[in-house]
Amino acid sequence: MSIITKKDVEHVALLARLEIDEEQKETFTQQLDNILEHISMLNKVNTDDVPPTYHVLPQKNIWREDGVRPSLDREDALANAPEQENGCFKVRKVIES
Amino acid sequence: MKLYDLTIHELHDKLVKKEVSSEELTKAVLDRVDEVENSVHSYVTLTKELALEQARQVDKKIAAGEKISPLAGIPAAIKDNMCTKGVTTTCSSKILHNFKPPYDATVVNKLNGNDLVMVGKANMDEFAMGSSTETSYFGPTRNPWNLKAVPGGSSGGASAAVSCGEAIYSLGSDTGGSIRQPAAFCGVVGLKPTYGLVSRFGLVAFASSLDQIGPFTKDVTDNALVMNAIAGHDNLDSTSINLQPEDYTKSLVNDVKGLKIGIPKEYFIEGIEPEVRENVMKGIRLLESLGAHCEETSLPHTEHALPVYYIIAPCEASSNLARYDGVRYGFSTEEAEDLIDSYKKSRSQGFGAEVKRRIMLGTYALSSGYYDAYYLKAQKVRTLIKNEFEEAFKKYDVLITPTAPTVPFEIGAKTEDPLAMYMSDICTIPINIAGIPAISIPCGHTSTGPIGMQIIGKSLAESTILRAAYTFEQNTDFHKKRPNL
Predict the structure, then answer these.
(1) Which of B317, B267, B293, B291 is nearest to B397 (CA)?
(2) Which A positions 25-84 lie with beta carbon below 8 A of chain B?
(3) What is the DSSP string of A41-59?
(4) How far apart are CA B82 and CA B105, in angstroms?
(5) How many distinct structural domains can be found in chain B?
(6) Beta bridge partners of B191
(7) What does the alpha-carbon distance between residue B422 and residue B270 come to, in Å, rounded to a whole number?
(8) Cα separations (Å) of B418 from B305, B308, B422?
(9) Is the ipTM of this complex over 0.90?
(10) Correct CATH for A6-44 of 1.10.3470, 1.10.20, 3.90.550, 1.10.287
């Protein structure tokens, strides 16, 4: 039985803000299923009472002085913007008219 | 030997003795680029004018009798996922094809402080996702030893450039083997330092808990010299380790008497090509003949490292790559109706297939209801893998394994089967999972390309693995061979 279906792939694509065509959907379903099948070997590993390692270093909170420092100029920050207007990033409409 | 065939330390001697100028050296490397770049394709962007200008500045310092850094005036390549102020930084992706960073990565800053001469930005797998440099939007890099074969990946451009003299050294990044595996395939030395030893500020993030920057060089001495320049604490990276700087050249000692070497049997099983196994075993026997104690050992969780990696890395990537929305920088579609449509179209047209596959995998594993089964489970198994290494290092100073399971494979051989491609990293991934350091050094040559041997150390034991690597190198000639190109 497959772990992931075409319907799952469609849902995940929506969550990830990706558009994929029919052919890619088939390919991804097959390939992701193979990968998840391989990954499922972890189910056999006993991890009762094992804490997760989110981070390999034993560091906790890292603090620094809350000092005033120069930041990026607006012009530099906008230099790569595909579209800008009045010193702001310009995006397409977000509110339905 | 041509100038471009020499090492950093040999060229530094020539610079300070005024036998050659940095400008002459840089021109020699740029001529080499003109000669071989069409067949190798190590670079996404060349910065020839900048390199010559930087070289002339170093020459002025030398003429004025100033003391220069060991890296000063030596032409280098930077993998194209490290930000270079004003110089296009693409990650070999269409989505960043025109991105000019407004700042330098900390490693670039540090190299600039050592009078960097930057030849260009090196090709890579798109967003460092791959083991062959074939997923680059700008086309694959080829292996200088065998143009039909891949150079390894994801830092394939950075390793190929050093192996054929298009740069004297380079910086790569390693998330699951992306420095060590291409170093093995291209017959050069590649080090993945302990997680946190080199700042990641300005490195375009792939999997933040695994990514680490490190050097590609022609020999171990050069590797220590580059580490001296790039290691160290950085306030701009909260995962950076705060330690006193270390002089890695002090580990360049030709002596392994009494060194305890563990040989984990899980790295020599079926699936590791016989030629690879034989050459690595020969290397281990050489170290034994020089006075090291070798013993077989077992790391039973090795087989779980790949599945753990293919949960953690895509999960972190799916989150990190959410920032590419076509609004603030990079590729942006012109066809969209509204904002959501613009995100979807910009991302779909901007990312290649492998990047999409990993974003999908990570998004799936992190989606509602699956977190415990995938991400949390993987982080728990990660603890077991890490503990297993810690136990092993109570008995051994270093562990030695092959760097890659195969010799360099042909271009196109694994592009249709993602899982087969992922297997290229089975010997290197466990090291990133545990956050420990490892170096790949050349230990053999075959008709299809070079073979690398991986020396693994415990956390922050760079000096131990450099010493073992240096001793091996001083008693062999593999590092002196250059591809016939």
Answers:
(1) B293
(2) 28, 31-32, 34-36, 38-43, 45, 47, 50-57, 59, 62, 64, 72, 76-77, 79-83
(3) GGGGS--TTPPP-S-SS--
(4) 6
(5) 1
(6) B439
(7) 16
(8) 17, 16, 6
(9) yes
(10) 1.10.20
CATH for B113: 3.90.1300.10
* Yes or no, beta carbons of A47 and B380 under 8 Å apart: yes
Task: Identify whether B371 is part of a domain.
Answer: no
Could you give the CA distance from residue B138 to residue B89 in angstroms, rounded to a whole number?
13
pLDDT (tens digit per residue) in B132-190: 999 999 999 999 999 999 999 999 999 999 999 999 999 999 999 999 999 999 999 99
Rounded to whole angstroms, the Cα distance separating B334 from B224 reads: 48
Helix (H, G, I), strand (E, B) or coil at B326: coil
Chain B, 75 to 94: residues with Cβ < 8 Å from chain A are none
> Which structural domain range is residue B445 located in?
3-259+397-480
Domain ranges of chain A: 6-44
Phi, psi of B398 (to 5 degrees): -140, 160
First-residue to last-residue Cα distance in chain A: 46
B18 belongs to a structural domain: yes
Is pTM beyond 0.90? Reply is yes
pLDDT in tens, B335-344: 898 999 999 9
Phi-psi bin for B41: left (phi > 0), alpha (psi -120 to 50), beta?
left
**How far apart, in Å, are the Cα atoms of B120 and each of B46, B70, B300?**
4, 20, 42
Domain-embedded: residue B298: no
- Residues from chain A that touch B381, judged by Cβ atoms under 8 A, are 42, 45, 47, 50
Residue B197 inside a domain? The answer is yes
Tokens of B244: 């006193």
**pLDDT band (50, 70, 90) for residue A1:** low
State the 10-residue block means of pLDDT for chain B, 485 residues long. 96 98 98 98 98 98 97 98 98 98 98 98 98 98 98 98 98 98 98 98 97 98 98 95 94 98 95 95 98 98 97 97 96 92 96 97 94 95 98 98 97 91 94 98 97 98 98 98 95
Helix (H) or strand (E) holding B67: none
* Strand pairing report for B169-174 and B75-79: parallel
CB B202 within 8 A of CB B82: yes
Amino acid at B124: M
